[in-house]
Amino acid sequence: MENKTERFEKLLVKNGLKRTAPRLQVLEILSGRDSATSQPYLEQVMGKDADRVTLYRVLQAFEEKGIIHKVLDQQGTANYAICSDGCSAHEHHDEHVHFNCDNCHKIYCLDTVKIPALKVPAGFKVEHLNLIATGLCANCSDKVN
Amino acid sequence: MENKTERFEKLLVKNGLKRTAPRLQVLEILSGRDSATSQPYLEQVMGKDADRVTLYRVLQAFEEKGIIHKVLDQQGTANYAICSDGCSAHEHHDEHVHFNCDNCHKIYCLDTVKIPALKVPAGFKVEHLNLIATGLCANCSDKVN
DNA sequence: CATTTTAATGCAATTATGTTGCAAATATAA
DNA sequence: TTATATTTGCAACATAATTGCATTAAAATG
Ligand SMILES: [Mn+2]
Ligand SMILES: [Mn+2]
Ligand SMILES: [Zn+2]
Ligand SMILES: [Zn+2]
């Protein structure tokens, strides 16, 4: 079985992106976490390995290519998670619900929970739906009890 | 029938807030619009009538008291709308869908569209739901046709 | 109505987040 | 190995938001 780095390199090539250190590092970090990762956290972890501007540009490129998707938490902070397969440059196919824990502040992609269709008033044309649930995640509600 | 300003003054008193010019002005502006109002717009309209910091503090106080609610648009910008009745200091009772138009960028409170209940994975405890639909609003989809 | 009390405002400084232009570096194609 | 096209880093800038503190003003009190 091919290792993670090899997979990431192929992913970059497939999307016409050059195999660079900051890009591989971002993929490394994101893939190693069980929840969406905030921009500030990424910035902190990458430290001086990459300039702040580079990080923003890496994230933007990945988002455009459908490699990651952005989720804003309740404070408006950008969080990023690796996309499920099937997302591409011009369409993200992962309209799942996101869960923002009030306690640990993690954002989980609830890949199995799809957003139900909506009946909107006449005239409105819905393109995308974005649903964020807040409350306590499985970990935190355990601890509280 | 009592006029708007009188109503606003009562609203402030009821919530233990002093009747000040910046507060009345914010209520005036918000109530005169058909969609949620962004912080930058408010700042611009109020001009030098109130310091930027005061505006932030007015909005925060109103939100805490359940007088207005905040909606983040797709860029993470804060937008504010007056709450429906029944919202209070510690509970907002207006979990309706919000619609963010891709064209005019307005955010509409779809008061009549409630967010459907969700089935989440075991362990997760949902407190609040926050659903933003994007697409074209009634006005803009008219114009396009 | 004058005075006291308490809440709210304005200002200055600071932090966080995100963007742009451009020169230098580097990954990859030739 | 060289050429090219992309990517990076740096500097400067823009905007959003927060904090501490002195001053002002609203409302409560007598
Ligand atoms: Mn997700
Ligand atoms: Mn609303
Ligand atoms: Zn949690
Ligand atoms: Zn519109």
Automatic annotation (TrEMBL), chains A, B:
GO terms for biological process: negative regulation of DNA-templated transcription; regulation of secondary metabolite biosynthetic process. Belongs to the Fur family. It comes from the Bacteria. Keywords: DNA-binding, Metal-binding, Repressor, Transcription, Transcription regulation, Zinc. Zn(2+) binds at C101, C104, C137, C140. This is Fur family ferric uptake transcriptional regulator. Gene3D superfamilies: 3.30.1490.190, Winged helix-like DNA-binding domain superfamily/Winged helix DNA-binding domain. Its cofactor is Zn(2+). Binds 1 zinc ion per subunit. It holds the Pfam family FUR. One of its GO terms (molecular function) is zinc ion binding.
